[in-house]
Amino acid sequence: MEATRPTRDDARRNRDRILDAAALAFARDSAATLASIADAAGLSRATAYRHFADVDAVHAALLEEAQQVGRDLIQHQLPEMFEDGMPVLETIERVLRSAIPLQHRWTVAISNEPVADAGLIDTFSSFAQAFLRRGQLSGELRDDLDLEVVAEALVSLALYAVRRFHADGLSIDRVLGALMPFLDGLRKDAERPAPLED
How far apart are CA 91 and CA 3, in angstroms? Predict the structure, then answer.
C-alpha cells in the first residue's frame, strides 16, 4: 500500500504546529533543538526537517512573523493617524500602545530571554528614522538628534517593552511609562543636559 502525501492544508497545519511548539520550547529553553520541538509538536522529526532545515530556520520563521505583524500594523494603522494630523510623539505612543499587546508566536518565544533582535531592529529602524525626521521637519523634535541612533534606540526599547509586557505581565501603562522619558527627551523644548567634560 502506497503512503499518501500530506495535502497543502496538512502541511500548513504541521508547519503551524511546529512554530507553536517552537515558541513554547524557546520560552522554556532558548537552546531547544528541532528534534525536541518536533516531539513537543507531536510530529515526526522527518516532518519537522521537511519544513525547517535546522533550529535557526525556525528562529528565522518566527522573526519573519514578527516582522510581518509590524509591517501590517504600519500599513493599516499609521495612515489613519497621519490623516488625523496627530503630533509625531503622540502617534508613536499610540502605535506602541497598539503594537505591544499584540500576541503572536514571537512574543511567546522571547519570554525566556531575548532572541536575536537585529532583524527586527533593522526592519523597523528605517521606518522609525523617517518618522522621527518628519517630527524634526514639523518642528516638534530637536534638530540635533542623530536619527539613526535614536531610531535604533527607540525600536530596541519597544522590543524590550514587548518582552516585559508579555513575559513579566507588566501593564501597558507601566511599560509605556518607562518609554516616555526617552520620548519626552526628543521634544524640541526638552531640557538638554550639559555636555560631559573630559
Answer: 55
